[in-house]
Design goal:
There is one protein chain. The protein has helices at 4-7, 12-34, 41-50, 57-63, 68-80, 102-126, 128-139; strands at 84-88, 96-100. The protein is mostly helical. The chain has a single domain (37-139), classed as Arc Repressor Mutant, subunit A (Orthogonal Bundle). A two-stranded antiparallel sheet has the order 1-2. The longest helix is centred in the last third of the chain and has 25 residues, at 102-126. The two termini are 30 Å apart.
């Protein structure tokens, strides 16, 4: 982990990257400490895109910042773990849709609760108002 003095020398892009990496590691560890099902950050990313939806696999590949081949590999792994179900589309024989299974939804919701706990820990350290301000800033359209 990078020290506070090293953080002070970083620009915005590297600060965002360091903090993102840190909270992802903590979040992943929290999940893996309480579950027998290992789910990678990339798999969580895909699960977040399909939670409560039934998108096509091609929609997922266009809207997730991971290579098409990697997405297909992650979807296959998620399917093998029983977390997603891949179905044929009714009107289109070539296209397949994907959705979380009941187990996938339960895992996603448990992980959401773990992330909320992490957010609360961060708020305890830096203040609830600071967390709200940070989230508001990150939600802004940066026009870049």
């Amino acid at each position: 982990m990078i020290s506070n003095s090293e953080l002070k020398k970083l620009d915005l892009i590297d600060l965002l990257s360091e903090r993102h990496s840190l909270v992802r590691k903590i979040s992943e560890k929290a999940w893996n400490d309480q579950s027998e099902i290992y789910i990678s950050n990339s798999e969580w990313y895909i699960m977040a895109r399909i939670y409560k939806k039934q998108p096509t696999i091609s929609y997922v590949t266009k809207n997730v910042e991971i290579s098409r081949q990697a997405i297909h590999k992650f979807i296959q792994k998620l399917s093998e773990k029983g977390l997603v179900e891949i179905k044929n589309m009714e009107n289109n024989k070539k296209e397949k849709c994907i959705q979380l299974t009941d187990l996938g939804e339960a895992c996603y919701e448990k992980n959401a609760a773990l992330k909320a706990q992490l957010e609360n820990k961060i708020a305890e350290k830096i203040g609830t108002e600071q967390v709200t301000i940070l989230k508001d800033i990150l939600k802004l359209d940066w026009k870049i």
